[in-house]
Known about the structure:
It is a single chain. Helix content is 62%, strand content 13%. By secondary structure, the chain is of the alpha+beta class. A 5-stranded mixed β-sheet has the order 3-2-1-4-5. The mean pLDDT is 81.
Amino acid sequence: MKLDPASLPSELANRTLGREAWAREKLAAHAGRIFAVDVGPARAGFRIEADGTVANAPLGGLAPDLELAIAPHRVPALLADPKRWNQLVAERGDAALGGTLKALAQTLPWFVEQTFARALGPIAGQRAADAGRRLLAFPDHAFSRVTESVGRYARDEAGLVVRHDEVRTFGEQTAALAARVDALAARIAALDTVR
């Protein structure tokens, strides 16, 4: 059997959906709809079939009903914690289909745990799934820590970023200076009227 890399995502999804009639029923409600997934420069289209499975859909000239976009460095974070869907995935298009895909994504950890439990047993499978979740969450954690450190360095050490209290003080001083300029202008205007 020849493996087509382009069909791998739909084959994996259909293999998981094959055991879950309730998930196929949710997707079947959107039969015929096409959604696109953009991960950085990579773009793939999928069509929902009448039986609730998904098939590759060439996007050529078609406008998909729903477009999902996620930054490549955010994919592991989404896989580790699908509850962050709204924070990590940008949706444009069919809100009902987006809601269904979001709801199914929330069950992804359960699918993974179930698969590991079948392969390794319930206890080892659960531990493997937990370890995988922690590993997937690490890049996002590291990214946020590095960003926080760079921001702190730019603010505290290099003096490139202004602190909130400095901005507030600057605003107060600017308002006081503006009030003094207005008062001076009023005094000059009063002197002009006296002459």
